[in-house]
Specification:
The structure is a single chain. By secondary structure, the protein is mainly alpha-helical. It has one domain. 47% of the residues lie in helices and 9% in strands. It is built from 3 helices and 2 strands, in the order H-H-E-E-H. It has a two-stranded antiparallel ribbon with strand order 1-2. The radius of gyration is 13 Å and the shape is globular. 14% of the residues are buried.
Length: 90
């Protein structure tokens, strides 16, 4: 992956493995998302899934903050993330 050195990649992969094994606390906290965000960037690319700009946030695809499976995460820029939630309220 571009932009990450070997040590960083290994750290991100180890974090993701702990996440998969349910050894990290999957509660909805910014600290937990800071742990998994670099892995998502490494795996999915450093771009917003909707508009292609730099992502800064994680969105729960199904809207359930308790569903913290990696497949339920979408990386988005702040504007697109807020757009998803505005549509949900309308």
């Amino acid at each position: 992956m571009k932009g990450f050195d070997t040590t960083q990649k290994r750290t991100f992969e180890e974090t993701a493995e702990l996440w998969f094994q349910n050894k990290l606390n999957h509660k909805y906290t910014s600290q937990n998302y800071r742990k998994i965000f670099p892995y998502l960037i490494m795996e999915r690319g450093n771009h917003c899934a909707k508009c292609g700009t730099i992502p800064t946030e994680i969105h729960h695809v199904d809207g359930d903050r308790k569903n913290n499976g990696l497949s339920n995460f979408m990386i988005l820029c702040a504007e697109c993330h807020h757009g998803f939630h505005r549509k949900k309220r309308a």
